[in-house]
Amino acid sequence: MSDQKSGVMVQGRLIPFPSSISPEARTSLEQLVNDEGVPLNALYTMPLPDDHAGWMKIKAAADGQYASAVKGLAGTLRASVETVRTGEATIHVATPETTVNPECAYVDFHGGALVFGGGEACRAQARMQADQHRVLCYGIDYRMPPEHPYPAALNDAMAAYRYVLELHAPTRIIVGGRSAGGNLAVAMLLRAKDEGLPLPAGLVLLSPEVDLTESGDSFQVNQTVDVMLPGSLMRNNVLYAGGADLAHPYLSPLFGDLEDLPPTFLQSGTRDLFLSNTVRMHRALRRAKVEAELHIFEAMPHGGFRGNTPEDHDLADEVSRFVKGRWG
Q: How many CB atoms neighbour CB 325 within 10 A?
């Protein structure tokens, strides 16, 4: 018998929602589990990577959920939006009611597990970012699998970045992304650096999906504990990669050469399945001598509490402070 120990045995137990968060945040967590305490999202299983019909069905269902969420934002978004195309890339350009500086731009990459979140959801998020920062926001509606596997999304990101560089000085550009969008934001900058393009003034990564190999500790420790993202997205990752090596820096930018990347804001939560992605990315950036801020929120699952909670407002304020500071 081997003397090597393989891990820590955890008996079945109920993990309570903590009293250390706001009542609003606790309510948000409670709404995401059933009466047995099982996360509602854990009841859904992603199709196998080669099940094209299954992916199209689940994408249609997700689009319906996003449409309902966007409808709920009616009347709250002030920015106008128009859609432009450059090459095969689709960009939703959102203009705030009042612009603090027309020279500044925020380039936004939506989340959605590399498969979902485009279309109207992407347009709405661009408007939200324009409202928050009061500058032009370019929401990148990148192509996604199963119709368009890697490198389609990254190609769209590069086309969009070149488009924005024609309109704004790099020192006036901030790039941001949440979850899957964080993957594309960093991968785009790594490729931009490889291709000799100037880098932006700052980078915002909200629970970024920077390791598609899912090698981090929190993929085990926070499994099911994260009520928003309770389990592995490996089927999504394999579908997205389309046969490419998941560890390649353009797919898992955590493993890339991060030197010379711009100052970076990183956020996660103690119950986030992607917590390891975020803390490892922070350490990798620090080793590369990149200025980087790490913000970890108590009991926050993947994507935040997604409500009108003090914690979500606190996060938005921190992002706004960082972005404003990078623009000077």
A: 12
The structure tokens 């203009």 sit at 95
Q: Is 17 exposed, middle or buried (0-12, 13-18, 19+ CB in 10 A)?
A: middle
Q: Cα-Cα-Cα-Cα dihedral of 240, 245, 246, 249, to 10°?
A: -110
Q: Which residues have C-beta within 8 Å of that of residue 3, sequence separation ≥ 6?
A: none
Interval 15-30 mean pLDDT: 95
Torsion of CA 15, 17, 21, 22, to 10 degrees: 170
Radius of gyration of the chain (CA): 19
Distance CA 319, CA 132 (A): 10
Residues in the chain, overall count = 328
- pLDDT tens digits for 82-104? 999 999 999 999 999 998 889 99
If we measure between CA atoms, which residue out of 105, 102, 107 comes closest to residue 188? 107
Contact (CB, 8 A) for 243 and 232: no
Half-sphere exposure for 185 (CA within 13 Å, toward CB): 34
Token output for 53: 């019909």
308 — pLDDT class (breaks 50, 70, 90): confident
Query: How far is the C-alpha of 40 from the C-alpha of 227, rounded, in Å?
Result: 7
Task: Tell me the pTM.
Answer: 0.96
C-alpha to C-alpha distance for 93 and 116, rounded to whole angstroms: 20
